[in-house]
Amino acid sequence: MSHSPSSSCAAPLRVGIVGLGRLGRRHAEALAFATRHVQLVAACSPVESEREFARGELGVPRIHADYEALLQDPEVDAVVLVTPTSLHADQTIAALRAGKHVFVEKPLALNVEDCERVLAVAAEHPDRVAMVGFVRRFDPSYQSAQASVAAGEIGRPFLVRSQTCDRNDPDGFFVRFAPTSGGIFMDCSVHDIDLARWLLGRPKALRAFASGTIALHPGLAECGDVDNGLAIVEFEGGARAVFYASRTMAHGHETSTEVIGTEGKLLVGEHAARDRVVRSDARGVGHAVLADFHERFEAAFSREMIAFVAACRGEQTLDLTLSDAVEATRIGVAITRSLISGQVAPV
Amino acid sequence: MSHSPSSSCAAPLRVGIVGLGRLGRRHAEALAFATRHVQLVAACSPVESEREFARGELGVPRIHADYEALLQDPEVDAVVLVTPTSLHADQTIAALRAGKHVFVEKPLALNVEDCERVLAVAAEHPDRVAMVGFVRRFDPSYQSAQASVAAGEIGRPFLVRSQTCDRNDPDGFFVRFAPTSGGIFMDCSVHDIDLARWLLGRPKALRAFASGTIALHPGLAECGDVDNGLAIVEFEGGARAVFYASRTMAHGHETSTEVIGTEGKLLVGEHAARDRVVRSDARGVGHAVLADFHERFEAAFSREMIAFVAACRGEQTLDLTLSDAVEATRIGVAITRSLISGQVAPV
Amino acid sequence: MSHSPSSSCAAPLRVGIVGLGRLGRRHAEALAFATRHVQLVAACSPVESEREFARGELGVPRIHADYEALLQDPEVDAVVLVTPTSLHADQTIAALRAGKHVFVEKPLALNVEDCERVLAVAAEHPDRVAMVGFVRRFDPSYQSAQASVAAGEIGRPFLVRSQTCDRNDPDGFFVRFAPTSGGIFMDCSVHDIDLARWLLGRPKALRAFASGTIALHPGLAECGDVDNGLAIVEFEGGARAVFYASRTMAHGHETSTEVIGTEGKLLVGEHAARDRVVRSDARGVGHAVLADFHERFEAAFSREMIAFVAACRGEQTLDLTLSDAVEATRIGVAITRSLISGQVAPV
Amino acid sequence: MSHSPSSSCAAPLRVGIVGLGRLGRRHAEALAFATRHVQLVAACSPVESEREFARGELGVPRIHADYEALLQDPEVDAVVLVTPTSLHADQTIAALRAGKHVFVEKPLALNVEDCERVLAVAAEHPDRVAMVGFVRRFDPSYQSAQASVAAGEIGRPFLVRSQTCDRNDPDGFFVRFAPTSGGIFMDCSVHDIDLARWLLGRPKALRAFASGTIALHPGLAECGDVDNGLAIVEFEGGARAVFYASRTMAHGHETSTEVIGTEGKLLVGEHAARDRVVRSDARGVGHAVLADFHERFEAAFSREMIAFVAACRGEQTLDLTLSDAVEATRIGVAITRSLISGQVAPV
To answer: Which GO molecular function annotation, any one, does this entry have (chains A, B, C, D) (predicted)?
Structure first.
């Protein structure tokens, strides 16, 4: 994750966006209108409507239907990959070999082997930035919590409890997506896994146990997936983590994380208040809830792009490394194995 | 509020309850079943069903229809008056003259003159306890807050914001009660006034301004009352208080008090959670709300009786004095004058 | 848990307390001073100071050093056992055989066999009440939550997350107690286990997995115990539970439980606010925390005794049965086996 | 606040910033880097270091020391005035007469006459946007609350309680600024006044009463100002408002507003949590607090500029009008008169 000192601080970074689905558009708009020191110079998508969006709405000058063409474009310094997970590893490798910096959405891959292939290629290109989108690390609240832990404010941290819980989608869109998602733990908990490692000081994971249930979406049974999953991970040195992932929350998107130490604990994100309004009426006292992770992590998505740009321009190093992404996949794979076997799985 | 050292610590206090309406029954049950060192030996009410309740449900041996008869009863050490406000002053005086300790519900009287008559008689009976039921002083949270203020934890307190807000009663029972209640400030805010003086260290009140509105109960206009009232009180030395009283809350009973000092502030009772349950569902995240002051101050009503009994038995002195009750009425009267005149009123 | 219709509703229940340690004294005081329809007529303890307390402070007329003597006392209708866990089963059986109703503190026993012996004897005495002290069931917040679940307000409940977390005791008193406590799950989580079954509708437990760590008290290693433990339990029909027990909280006693259903979730007890006071000062905004379970469950301990008395007097049946206590032990034992073996344990 | 239909939707708005103090820089950075459809083409300041900042950090091409020069610049479509309050009225008038759209920081003026002069000139230039920076209207939480009120969710709103409370500045910088600030109500409460009118449906204000105290900054006495002020405002039709302004909070910046209606109430901003982190340690459970209004209203400042740009480009009309600013000053002036006279003041 090092970077060349020859990166010019003066010139803006020229970025090409790859994939303009919902999350891709968000990244593209941030790059086009709300990030300093960057120019969104190119866009790539096999989908005509997405290319039209880039051309018309964002005013992107260079439009490609083909990823290879984008990589050949000498006016592009960096690529941002918001593509299907199955493409992540190979596209990242190709970008690095083409001399581009690369940001790739999480997870890096659904198996450890692909992750390690990327790691090996990245090691051959130490002057190129390769960053995986663990966006929760760039959320102001998570950053504040991690800084407190690092400063010793809760003593020695030894337990993380973390959840990614989505509002139920009655249409069950994600059920159709399940066969390629890698399962609930690879799709949702990979964020929690990364946070747990980050907050606990990157201990080595030893074993995992998982259990799940299908509360509302029986269609998941076909591919061995569940809509509510629990996992315990044991780390070397005694630290532990518990993860909970759900697709069936009634109230909204509630992503939260607790880190417990010998002198205190920190809890990030509980209750998922949409804003600073408290309502009191005949139904009681309460507040509205965040709809989804886009709403929850709006600021974090912006800061993530700012961090990527700063890293590419050599202004700042990243605490988040490719190795972190590999370890998150390694643990997620072990948890998934345990879910399927019903037994404790070595990591 | 002093007491005779000859009070025996060993013998239980023998109490007669006067008035067995809703609040009277609560006090009577507390005395009969849940307070140590006390015997509920007598009950008095002009209402047959109330006397029957005392006899049958509480097993009270001495039942009187007439207050004078109760006062003549040599087996009664103390009386607890839960009677209409218009009777408070004279009944308190009669009890003291009969040699009884006396607990009287708030307010002591609706005018300052009656309060001062009681004060004068009490001064002639320094060995009898006379206590007014400012129950919020006995609530654990208010006691904790006051102790913090007294310990200097918020520096010098200079502002109190306090409210007594009842859930709207669509039947408007209190409208019929309005002509004799003394108005919203005498009926509701008298608690807040007492708390403000207590928390601010009993400064002398100088001036008051009040304003009100009728949100839902036009019948109040006839007797010059409002269903939502605001008041500012200025104290000598610079301290200030703001009071809010409402009969029209949609969500429940929300009594709260904030005391602000030079080094911090304390807020008691906001949001009026009924219990420790948080609900998350399609309507958001929230909690149930207290229905009324009975539910809010259940523990305080018990502790209030315990404090009265302990004072009568000479085991403890009361921080809450008759003078406090006189001052609360004095300020309440000035606020009410301001509401009617529309101008600043001297206290 | 049935009761004889011949129980007189009129006569107060005559109770003997057995064991007057901290919790025993609390029960005894509640019975002596704050519970209707009951007389604390006897006390039993092998400890002279405890007998003296019962005689002097509580005014209990019949004092026994020997449990057998108490059971022979014809003036005693019911016994309340607050004795070491190792005695619970035999003392309960002896009480039933002596024709007494019996309340016994949790857990009923540390092994399933002892529980089943009690169950068998209780079955022979269907007119005697036998109740185990799962006090959290009598807490107003837990009762409200369970009523909501039973009323279908959160749809079908499928997951419980529950914790019993004590404030760290730097002296580590519990370390010396560890060899006989049955371990952290039997000592603390047994409450959470009972709640999970109650909230989920008493499904049959199938398997358990546990993992733990020692954060602060290395002395626990000797007896195979931990000071922080996690467990997942799988139930027939798909429901799941996650338990967390800790001896090392920095902030206080935080017992909380979340029950998640298909249409919402309920969370009981988070953040453990000591009272209704919010403080704002240079350190931020916050509140004080409950010190221990005595403070948290003060109201529940009273209600628990009221429920026991009412059941003995035939006025009400108990939802909490001896079978519930057996199942809680059965699950607790399986969790403990998993902690020791490191593998999934059948229940 | 109307706008010419001839405003081109295509061309970006060319803006000149006037004044580059702390808040000016924030606006300038938002315009330069984070707002679509706008170009920051000019900057104006009498201070050399501010001009240098605009040139060097923001890359602004046209730099002026003199406001008149900026107004003559034909490449400037709109000006953003972040200048001393005493200049607001005349600079706004000059901008309108020069054919520019104008955004001016609040308050529009410290007296009603100046406000009305601006209003008259604006009426002569109906195709130019003139907007006053009541930033709280653009905060997502305030917008959500106002939308709920407008949708009838709390019935008929009849009471607003609103506060602007700053963290105490031990250096008392604002004391030196006091003689020209217009006093605490004109400086701080003008926001609350505007919100109250907005939430209550713009009723006509009739009377005001104010009271204040000096808690920590005796230097304010010289200019008749206070560091803690309270005010009640009466509106035609029965609505009421209570304002609290403070310079002496120990914990941080806590701006909050409650609007109470016949069927519910909404509370915005209480407790001023800095982020989504809850800390539990030996001091209790709590959270960090916002430092100042910059931190609290970061998102609102951005949205405010976006709204100004959209209005200038004819894409959207503004709910916030110049008349609103005039009325806010009118009420603020009446409150201030009452503070000084000690009597009720007509508005």
So the answer is: nucleotide binding
CATH classification code of C13-133: 3.40.50.720
Contact A15, A75 (CB under 8 A): no
Encoding tokens for residue A185?
């733990």
Please list every residue in chain A whose beta carbon sits closer than 8 Å to the beta carbon of residue C240: 211-213, 228, 230
CA angle B274, B279, B282 (to 5 degrees): 135
Looking at chain C, the whole-number percentage of residues with pLDDT higher than 90 is: 92
Query: Which CATH superfamily, name and number, covers C137-296+327-346?
Result: Dihydrodipicolinate Reductase; domain 2 (3.30.360.10)
- Confirm whether D13-133 and D137-296+327-346 share one CATH topology: no
Architecture category of domain B137-297+327-346 in CATH:
2-Layer Sandwich (3.30)
Q: In whole angstroms, give the CA distance from residue C272 to residue D263.
A: 31
Under 8 Å CB pairs connecting chains A and D tally to 81
- Contacts of D161 by beta carbon, 8 Å cutoff, 6+ apart: B244, D241, D242, D244, D257, D258, D260
Q: Which of D35, D265, D278 is nearest residue A270 as measured by Cβ atoms?
A: D278
Q: Look-up: residue for tokens 């004078």?
A: B68
The yes-or-no verdict on residue B6 having pLDDT over 80 is no
The distance of Cα A133 from the centroid of its chain, to the nearest Å, equals 4
- In this complex, do A281 and D153 lie within 8 Å of one another by their Cβ atoms? yes
Are D89 and D114 in contact by the 8 Å Cβ rule? The answer is: yes
**Both structure tokens of B319:** 């921080």
Give D277→chain A minimum CA distance, Å: 5
Q: Where in chain D are the domains?
A: 13-133, 137-296+327-346
pTM attached to this predicted model: 0.95
A1 pLDDT exceeds 90? no
Quote ipTM for the complex: 0.94
- Domain A137-293+327-346 matching CATH 3.30.360.10: the answer reads yes
Cis omega (within 30 of 0) on the bond before D107? yes
Q: Do D265 and B242 touch (CB under 8 A)?
A: no
Compute the average pLDDT of residues C265-277: 97
- The C-alpha of D249 sits at a distance from chain A's nearest C-alpha, in angstroms, of 20
Angle at A77 between CA A71 and CA A78, to 5 degrees: 75
